[in-house]
Amino acid sequence: MSGRPDYTVVVPTTGRDALSALLRGLALGDGPAPAEIVVVDDRPGAPPPLAVPDLAPVRVLTSGGRGPAAARNIGWRAASTEWIAFLDDDVLTSRDWPARLADDLAGLGENVAASVARIEVPLPDTRRPTDDERDTLALTRARWITADMAYRRAALVEVGGFDERFPRAYREDADLALRVRRLGWRIVQGDRVTTHPPKSGGFLASVRRQRGNADNALMRAKHGPRWRDEAGEGPGRLGRHALTSVAGLAAAGLAAARLPRPAALAAGLWTGLTAEFATRRIAPGPRTPREVARMLVTSAVIPPVACAHRLAGEWRVRRGRAVLFDRDDTLIEDVPYLSDPEKVRPMPGAAEALALLRAEGVPVGVVSNQSGIARGDITPEELRAVTHRVDELLGPFSTWQFCPHAPDDGCACRKPRPAMVLRAADELGVDVRRCVVVGDIGSDVEAALTAGARAILVPTARTLPDEVDLARRHAVVAPDILTAARLALELP
């Protein structure tokens, strides 16, 4: 890469002390410097100013404690470069990191969405690693780890960036990579190396980590029951944790019912499963008295806690909803066969409606017929450029669904057919019955109803009276898009 490199570094932070060392290392690195370093302060409320060394062009933004996914979205959307290099605030980059990143990005094909670094975790060579250290070491085996991962901005726009329903630094990176790959993009391994110091989280750190089981529920809803295989993950222990928890509850219940023999059998099963789990965790560790005691206690606590978090996650997924918008005359003014990004004009109230839904944590998407591609009036590249402009003005959107076919092609996706609505619900991991489609004509309403979703019609001067009558009988009619967003939140 020659001249000024076309990349921005984005670092979400909770104000950890390691941030200063990272920023100082980036500023003193050899090779093409980033166009900008964007630090996103994710501490809630009104935190005190971050201590940022005055060594590099650093811009500090805030995300209000909404989690690393939201912080990264704010960071990459504030950048204008082709590449966004995400770094965690507790990693350390080598002096030649900028040069090696530039080498990794140089010459990548247009179909490459991301380059991922190799992560190293330095461990003591005088003893075996603790449970916390082994947890950090697992980052070296992660397939797509945003501790150091550079994404092409176009790919982030196309998938809507990180899914902010992942509230912690867990699974949000794998989810993004799976969605990107599903659209045909490639992710490649880079040669740069980044150091991640081992973590130490206290006596109950492994119990707190079980909150990630709620995120696994969202992963399953979005990517299917085999998502672990696709992401290069092992099978997990949730099944054993469930059996252990049931055995423990059964032992307690049977003992309370004064059934000593069945209670003893259930207690024996619980003891055996718990002992096996504890042994697996103690064996590779330092086996100090404190570490052994910690493994024994937490091995008994983890199974029911893991199951409780998973059940809570499944409930949230089941109760989740999404709102899907038609594009033309709903989100933006209708320009026939729009190919010029400069002609994109948001409809009145569109930005406010989208902001309202996002503030409530509701994912939003677009479902749009674009027959101009089949007719030869617009090219896929022109559609992509318009999409990027819509994203700049109104994004991010969690899913984009386009039908490129002509009316006579007989496809399953062109509205009023339901395929785009069904695909969007599937991508978002939301029951289609919990989706609301907002549009301006009858085909939007029919596509929603055929898919099993709800529909809200926002009529314009082009909406036919029959289409309004259809919506009044079978859906909801709203006077404007902001009212439609409020109604979407109120639907049971």
Descriptive key words:
Spore Coat Polysaccharide Biosynthesis Protein SpsA, Chain A, Rossmann fold, alpha/beta, 492 residues, 6-stranded parallel sheet, 14 strands, 3 domains, 8-stranded mixed sheet
CATH topology of the largest domain: Spore Coat Polysaccharide Biosynthesis Protein SpsA, Chain A
In CATH, the architecture of the largest domain is: Alpha-Beta Complex
Number of strands: 14
Give the termini separation: 53 Å
Radius of gyration: 25 Å
Beta-strand proportion:
15-25%
Let me know the CATH homologous superfamily of the largest domain: Spore Coat Polysaccharide Biosynthesis Protein SpsA, Chain A
Oligomeric status:
single chain
In the predicted model, the low-confidence regions spanning at least 5 consecutive residues are none
The CATH C-level class name of the largest domain: Alpha Beta
Largest sheet: 8 strands, mixed
